[in-house]
Amino acid sequence: MNTIAWQQSRSLGFSYTKAGIILTSLVLILMAVGIWAVGVGAVSISFKEVGCILLNELGWVNTHFSEQQALILTVIRLPRVLMGMLVGAVLGITGASMQGLFRNPLADPGLIGISSGASLFAVGMIVLELKVIQELNGLAGLYGMSFVAFFGACLTTILVYQLSKVEGKAVVTTMLLAGIAVNALSGAITGLMTYMANDAQLRTIQFWGLGSLGGASWDALKVATPLCLVPLVFVPRLGKALNAFALGESQAEHLGINPVRLKNQVIVLTTLGVGVSVALCGAIGFVGLIIPHIIRLLTGADHRLVLPASALLGAIVLTLADLVSRTIVAPAELPIGIVTAMLGTPVFIWILIKNRNQ
Amino acid sequence: MIQARNIHYSIKGKKLLKGVSLEAQTGELLAIVGANGAGKSTLLKVLSKEILPEKGEINIRQRSLDYWSRESLAKFRAVLAQQNALAFNFKVYDLVLMGRYPHFKGNPNKQDQEIVQYCLEKTGITHLAERIFITLSGGEQQRVYLAKVMAQLLDYEAIWDENHISKTPKYLLLDEPITGLDLFHQHNLLQIAKELTQKGFCVIAILHDLNLALQYADQVLLLKQGEVLGYGKPVEVLNPHNVLEAFNISVNLIHQSDMACPFIVHCHEPILTPKPAICQPQHFL
């Protein structure tokens, strides 16, 4: 082998410089989008004013803004935008890891029953108005329903996981089928309860079907941040293992990867992150499915880059979608699920057509 | 050394392996041959710890297969499987680099990249390095996988020194490696396998072409319905009697003075339907 060949080889395959550039630019876009999003709304706050308010909060007292602007920014918009980023990042990264685990670009976090389970329990709680749950509501304050939804998400995921076991081992294809079955069943029960619901209950149910970041507050963020950071920190470390998994389970094993551990890690981290986001913001569709697709088109299939990049793009897209959802029909709000699906579907169809022509 | 003693394996009551034993040394290419369903792939899966035998024991480097963890096995043993479906659009280079995964944490170093480069060159796919793997033809894909398993096992020293012999024994298991390859690359692949045996590798390959087994293998294991029909030197094992027994086809072993090894030709229809004992090429149609 000569030096010329070696010099050529540096430009081959996965490039760390390219990965660094992509991730850095996504971070910069995310910051820009965040600053823009906190400024836009019924009361407009300019970029300069945003800076001044934040500096004021941090202790550098100044008065280049009105009291009302400061309140809106710190109490309403900032937690909402941060929540959007957090949930978007979780949906993006868990979507990418689920697609890697199922070796299928059509998988998404909802596949193993997280969203449907959360919705089922939340809707059940709204419609049945059980005494126990109302007491729980008294105990946990506003988050009683989120707690129940999270519990439902975990329960259905465990059910799907147990159903997928063949001779004690979770089989990915069976998990896919079990997920579809459990999703259909919980969808049907949710539908039945929706049928039984009265008008006021229907309004609340809509929230679960389509999602909204309207409930975001600093208190909600305090609950969500530590739980969502766990998958955001640990999933990117699974990049190599998920790459090897693309070769097939046994091939990955021959490369020293433990497939059982990988499956457990991905499922636990996904359930945790998505369970929390569904519990607090409802089921937001399409982000987990589409974001990893777009990233793969931009960067290639290597999970070492796809995972962190999906988190960043997920955060960007959900922040923008929330911006649209709260401004387009202001002063009312459009559920964010409608926005993500309306924006997501054309992009998805475009990807399908592009792939078909390849 | 891979040592298998009295391996039994059955699935849903059907016995696939009935007391198979073998011993493959480093520096040796062992060819496993046999009819479809004779248990060749099952044997290779048992040897690679993909499935566990019901009975019998397997030793690799003087220790039981159970002793070795996945991680440590991956450093000195690679498997080229028969069915390789890849999910997602990985580039050829990145795929071959996956062979180095057992050797680095985080990011590959310069040596890993040089090994990958060498393996791409060796298998003649350097020009495909930037292509998306799933857009390649079947034969090209097979060569990419060969480069991957080579990258997994080669020492860094071996890419600079043709005569380097690996300090630790390496094991390469190939399940029908030449399927889908053209004539040139069939020989190319087996030549590479042969060269690897001289670098301290032990290669076990499932082969369908008996002539290639005669030409390249040091040992041949002939399987019939999960049992060993013959095990030893290729010329001895692949005699017309054994071939008829294993494949139900009559052959002649032709020795030619200017060739290093004899070759096998089919001569007439299986013995069950007797026909004139002359060679009739139309039977190949």
TrEMBL record, chain A:
Stored InterPro entries: ABC_BtuC-like, ABC_transptr_permease_BtuC
Localisation: Cell membrane
CDD domains the UniProt entry points to: TM_ABC_iron-siderophores_like
One protein family per Pfam: FecCD
Coiled-coil region(s): none
Membrane topology: Multi-pass membrane protein
Transmembrane segments: 21-47, 81-102, 109-128, 140-163, 175-197, 266-293, 305-328, 334-353
Keywords assigned: Cell membrane, Membrane, Transmembrane, Transmembrane helix, Transport
Annotated family: Belongs to the binding-protein-dependent transport system permease family. FecCD subfamily.
Entry protein name: Iron ABC transporter permease
Species whose genome carries this gene: Arcicella rigui
Automatic annotation (TrEMBL), chain B:
Keyword Transmembrane included in the entry's annotation: no
One Gene Ontology molecular-function label: ATP binding
Gene3D superfamilies: P-loop containing nucleotide triphosphate hydrolases
Xref: SUPFAM superfamilies: P-loop containing nucleoside triphosphate hydrolases (SSF52540)
All residue ranges annotated as the ABC transporter domain in the record: 2-250
A Pfam family matched in the record: ABC_tran
Keywords, comma-separated and alphabetical: ATP-binding, Nucleotide-binding, Translocase, Transport
Stored InterPro entries: AAA+_ATPase, ABC_transporter-like_ATP-bd, P-loop_NTPase
Function (record text): Part of the ABC transporter complex HmuTUV involved in hemin import. Responsible for energy coupling to the transport system.
PANTHER family: HEMIN IMPORT ATP-BINDING PROTEIN HMUV
Protein name from the UniProt record: Heme ABC transporter ATP-binding protein
Organism: Arcicella rigui
